[in-house]
Structure formats: structure tokens, C-alpha cells
Design goal:
By secondary structure, the chain is mainly beta. Helices cover about 10% and strands about 40% of the residues.
């Protein structure tokens, strides 16, 4: 089996010298990501996500029947087994893909660059605002005025 390997970096990282945040292994025959390695800030492998039991479900659309997530540091594994998969407009209405529905149900958080010298108390109290509503970044709870 041949793979494309795609390294994912943080914005502003030096691609030639920095370690990627994630590394995707994409099958060349069907362009499906079969494995993703997640790295910590020191460049060490932290987690590995792999997809197994691949099947073509609708022409050339591929899905996996099992997903394995391995936490290398904590020596823990989680396995998801998909028994039945339904593709139907009845289960997921089209309105769920509109910007209004997404903003109403999952508020947008403006990405903020966090500097290395911010202490944990200050970081925990950071918030964002969307359409006049405030949200805590650590839990996405709505902060009442």
C-alpha cells in the first residue's frame, strides 16, 4: 500500500526545522486518511488515530468500520466500532449546515494568540464575544450579563 504523507504545522512554524502538530497518512488509491499521528510541543508522539475496516459506501466515498485512538503517553486506547451507518436527509436536516444554525447552537470563538508568558489563571479567564454575547474559552459556557 502506498501513502501520501501530509504534515500539519501551526501558522508561523518553520516547516524545515519544526516538528509537525499532526502527520496524516493518506492512501494513494482512495485518498482516505488511514492514520494520524499527533505530536506534543516537544515533537514526541502523543496520540495515534487509525482507521480500520475500510469500505466504499457510495461509489468512491470511503468510510471506516473501526477507529482506534491510542494515547501513547498515558498507555490508553479507545476503540469505536461502527455497526450501522445511515445516510439520509431525514436524520440530519439541511438547515444544520447553515451559518445561522451553527452560530445559534455553537457560538463562534475568535481565535486569539496566547503568548507563552500568560499564567494559567489569566488563560482560564479569557473570553470571546459573538453578537453581543460573551463566552468563556475554557468551557464555551455563555456568560450571563
Amino acid at each position: 500500500m502506498r501513502y501520501f504523507i501530509i504534515d500539519v504545522y501551526r501558522p508561523g512554524d518553520d516547516v524545515s526545522s519544526d516538528t509537525p502538530v499532526r502527520r496524516h497518512f493518506v492512501r494513494q488509491d482512495n485518498f482516505f486518511i488511514t492514520k494520524t499521528d499527533h505530536y506534543d510541543n516537544q515533537g514526541r508522539l502523543h496520540k495515534r488515530q487509525s482507521y480500520h475496516d475500510l469500505r466504499a459506501v457510495d461509489g468512491d466515498m470511503w468510510r471506516s468500520g473501526m477507529i482506534l485512538m491510542e494515547d501513547i503517553k498515558n498507555h490508553h486506547q479507545s476503540l469505536l466500532k461502527i455497526i450501522r451507518r445511515k445516510f439520509s436527509h431525514d436524520y440530519v436536516p439541511a438547515e444544520m449546515f447553515t451559518a445561522d444554525w451553527l452560530f445559534q447552537n455553537h457560538p463562534y470563538v475568535v481565535p486569539q494568540k496566547v503568548s507563552e508568558d500568560i499564567d494559567s489563571e489569566e488563560h482560564d479567564s479569557m473570553s470571546a464575544e459573538h453578537k453581543g454575547q460573551s463566552y468563556r474559552l475554557d468551557s464555551m459556557e455563555k456568560i450571563l450579563p
